[in-house]
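note to self — DONT lose this again. spent like an hour looking for the file last time. sequence + predicted structure for the chain T wanted, 145 res
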Amino acid sequence: MEAAARVAWVRDGRAHLDCDSAPSCGACGSGAGCVLGRLARKGESGLEVPDRAEDRQPLRAGESVVVVVADGDLLRAVALAYLPPLVGVLLAPLFAHGLTGTGEAGMLLAAIGGAATGGWLARAALLRRPPAVIVRRRCEADGGA
């Protein structure tokens, strides 16, 4: 996955990237929001990365870049985000019913608890090992400034 971005600011070894709206971007065109926003931490408007591009040269504010996330890393992140809550929703009621013989209300509560626990585990795993992000400079041939 690739997304066009602009360096908003650089300080303390970190660079903050804001999404460039591009007509060719599927997420921008559909109004679903920038793909960078999905990689950013909750409550942040952009993505924060180390202040060096792939070529090891420092990034500068206002510079156009391309953010690249390998498909394998993206697929791993999606699996980590969705599978633990799904497993929790499916298995927690079975365990609750098998262990305690609980009724439908208890199984419903177990499903909610399983989803919440799975979501918490997924969030912890993604915070511990987020997808690897590569920042490349855009050149004139890529449509960059």
